[in-house]
C-alpha cells in the first residue's frame, strides 16, 4: 500500500495505522536503513543490513529491494567496487522495474522514492565510470519526474535538491556552465522555500563555480564567500577548505 501511495505521487502518512507489529518493525528497520544510506554512514549501514537481512528471510521479494540497494552502497563506498555495486543496484531496481537497462529513462513509469534513490545511485556510478552524459540523462529524468509527478512533502524536500546538486556538478564538469547555474539556482530557490538547510550552502558554492565558468568573477567570488561563511557557521570546515583550494588552484582567488 505504501508503494502505491508513492507511485501516485504522495507520501502515505497513514501506513502505520493498518499493519501488524511484525510488519511495522520491518518497516521501521527499513526506514532506518534508508536514513543510514542517505547519511552515507558505512558503519551504520553495515549494522542495519544485518538486522534487516534477518527480518526479510520469510518476506516477499519487494522487501529485499532496499537490502540490495544498501549492499550496493557498501560495495561502492566501503569496498570501492563499482562493478559489484552496479550489479547490486540493478538487482534492486529490477525487482520493481524489470525493463530498466541502467541507462535509458522509462518515462512512462511511475516511481517510488526507493526507485528514485536507486536510479540516482546508478547515475553516480556512471559518473565514476566517466559516463557523465548518461548520468545527466538519468538525473534529468528524475528531476522532471519529481517536478511533474510528486506532490511536495518531506521526501521530495530531501531528495529533489540532491538531484539538482548532482546535475549542477555534472553539467559544470562537462563545461555546460549556464545549465549548471540554472540547476544551482533552482535548487537554492527550492531550499529557501522548503527549508532544506543541508543542500543550501553546497548549492551556493555550485552557483559560484558556475559563475566562474561563465567568466563572471565578481559574482562568483561573492557566492563562494557566502558559501564559506555559511559552512563556517555550520562548522563544516572540510567544505571550506575544498572551496579555498579550488579557488586558488583554478582562478588564483584567495579567501
* Tally of domains: 2
* Principal-axes shape call: globular
Count the DSSP helices. Answer: 12
Strand content: under 5%
Strand tally: 0
The major beta sheet can be summarized as: none
Mean pLDDT: 89
Low-confidence stretches: none
Radius of gyration: 19 Å
Question: What structural class do helix, strand and pairing data support?
Answer: mainly alpha
- In helices, the fraction of residues equals over 70%
Separation, N- and C-terminal Cα atoms: 52 Å
Provide the succession of SSEs: HHHHHHHHHHHH
Topology of this protein?
Blueprint: H1 2-7, H2 21-39, H3 42-55, H4 65-77, H5 82-93, H6 113-128, H7 132-149, H8 154-173, H9 177-194, H10 200-213, H11 217-233, H12 237-251
In short:
This protein is mainly α and 255 residues long. It has helices at 2-7, 21-39, 42-55, 65-77, 82-93, 113-128, 132-149, 154-173, 177-194, 200-213, 217-233, 237-251. Helix 4 (65-77) packs parallel to helix 6.
Keywords:
single chain; 255 residues; mainly alpha; Serine Threonine Protein Phosphatase 5, Tetratricopeptide repeat; 12 helices; 0% strand; globular
Describe the structure.
- The protein has 2 domains: 1-130, no CATH class; 152-255, Tetratricopeptide repeat domain (Serine Threonine Protein Phosphatase 5, Tetratricopeptide repeat, Alpha Horseshoe), CATH 1.25.40.
- It has 255 residues and is mostly helical.
- Helix content is 71%, strand content 0%.
- It has helices spanning 2-7, 21-39, 42-55, 65-77, 82-93, 113-128, 132-149, 154-173, 177-194, 200-213, 217-233, 237-251.
Amino acid at each position: 500500500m505504501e508503494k502505491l501511495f508513492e507511485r501516485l505521487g504522495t507520501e502515505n502518512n497513514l501506513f502505520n495505522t493498518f499493519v501488524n507489529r511484525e510488519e511495522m518493525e520491518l518497516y521501521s528497520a527499513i526506514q532506518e536503513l534508508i536514513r543510514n544510506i542517505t547519511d552515507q554512514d558505512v558503519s551504520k549501514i553495515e549494522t542495519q543490513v544485518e538486522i534487516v537481512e534477518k527480518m526479510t528471510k520469510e518476506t516477499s521479494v519487494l522487501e529485499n529491494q532496499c537490502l540490495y540497494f544498501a549492499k550496493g552502497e557498501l560495495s561502492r563506498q566501503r569496498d570501492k567496487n563499482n562493478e559489484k555495486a552496479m550489479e547490486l543496484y540493478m538487482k534492486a531496481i529490477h525487482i520493481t522495474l524489470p525493463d530498466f537497462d541502467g541507462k535509458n529513462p522509462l518515462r512512462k513509469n511511475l516511481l517510488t522514492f526507493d526507485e528514485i534513490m536507486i536510479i540516482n545511485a546508478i547515475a553516480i556510478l556512471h559518473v565514476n565510470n566517466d559516463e557523465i552524459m548518461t548520468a545527466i540523462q538519468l538525473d534529468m529524468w528524475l528531476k522532471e519526474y519529481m517536478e511533474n509527478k510528486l506532490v511536495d512533502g518531506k521526501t521530495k524536500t530531501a531528495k529533489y535538491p540532491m538531484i539538482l546538486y548532482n546535475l549542477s556538478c555534472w553539467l559544470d564538469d562537462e563545461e555546460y556552465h549556464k545549465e549548471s547555474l540554472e540547476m544551482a539556482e533552482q535548487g537554492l530557490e527550492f531550499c529557501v522555500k522548503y527549508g532544506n538547510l543541508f543542500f543550501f550552502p553546497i548549492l551556493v558554492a555550485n552557483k559560484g563555480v558556475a559563475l566562474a565558468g561563465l567568466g563572471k568573477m565578481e559574482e562568483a567570488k561573492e557566492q563562494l564567500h557566502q558559501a564559506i561563511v555559511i559552512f563556517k557557521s555550520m562548522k563544516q570546515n572540510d567544505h571550506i577548505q575544498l572551496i579555498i583550494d579550488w579557488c586558488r588552484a583554478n582562478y588564483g582567488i584567495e579567501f
